[in-house]
Write a structure and sequence with these properties.
Elements (H helix, E strand, L loop, with lengths): L1 E3 L7 H20 L2 H11 L5 E5 L5 E8 L10 H8 L1 H14 L8 E9 L8 H15 L4 E7 L3 H9 L3 E7 L2 H7 L3 E8 L10 E3 L1
Parallel strand pairs: 1-8, 4-5
Antiparallel strand pairs: 1-2, 2-3, 3-4, 5-7, 6-7
């Protein structure tokens, strides 16, 4: 099993499928149903901002996208958007993505845009490995903490993040317009303060 600091080109398609499977409800308004999302997401992914886990049989197991400063998991590839949705709709969807998912975060923390594991591999500690690698990235950038947003109603995810050292920083009720687009009405911002650098684990890491 290997962890890569960048998403390799041969895994872009699989990463799009993983993302669409995990976040269809959150991004349906912006990118369309899962089948469409799978087509366009590979062209929006910013490979430098996505960690990936690959099995010994060269299968993509999971991904973790993050934002730091002015860079995020997604790049605004207008050509890909126009190719998929047409000129007017492509520009409109690009505007909506920028409005609801702004690509601007303080340098004091690393924000986790998305993290997911393929269904067959869940519950085996791979999320923890990705988070540990994200912590290393954060330390290298000189940041003090990891942050992410999770639906207030997603109790299993909140419990899992608590076990990995996160706690709730704040809870925000979304306005009706945002809630209808994202499919959630309230989000918890969770934070993990970084106080140590994880030693090397029993996996191979590649840049």
């Amino acid at each position: 099993m290997k962890i890569y600091r960048q998403l390799r080109p041969e895994f872009r398609k699989a990463a799009g499928e993983l993302f669409a499977e995990a976040f269809e409800s959150k991004f349906r308004y912006f990118l369309g149903p899962k089948e469409v999302m799978q087509k366009v997401v590979p062209y929006l992914i910013n490979k430098e901002q996505v960690l990936s886990i690959v099995s010994d049989t060269n299968e993509l197991i999971g991904i973790a996208g993050f934002s730091y400063g002015q860079k995020s998991m997604f790049s605004m590839n207008i050509r890909a958007m126009i190719r998929q949705y047409g000129l007017i709709k492509g520009w409109y969807k690009m505007f909506q993505l920028g409005l609801y998912f702004p690509n601007s975060f303080p340098v004091t923390h690393l924000y986790i845009d998305a993290i997911t594991i393929k269904a067959d591999y869940r519950g085996k500690g791979y999320i923890r490995l990705l988070l540990q690698e994200l912590e290393k990235v954060a330390f290298e950038k000189g940041t003090t903490n990891l942050q992410l947003d999770v639906s207030y109603d997603n109790a299993p995810a909140i419990r899992a993040y608590r076990k990995m050292g996160f706690y709730e920083l704040k809870s925000e009720t979304l306005d009706s317009s945002t809630a209808s687009r994202l499919g959630i009405s309230r989000v918890n911002r969770m934070i993990k303060i970084l106080d140590r650098y994880f030693p090397a684990c029993d996996y191979h890491r590649f840049v």
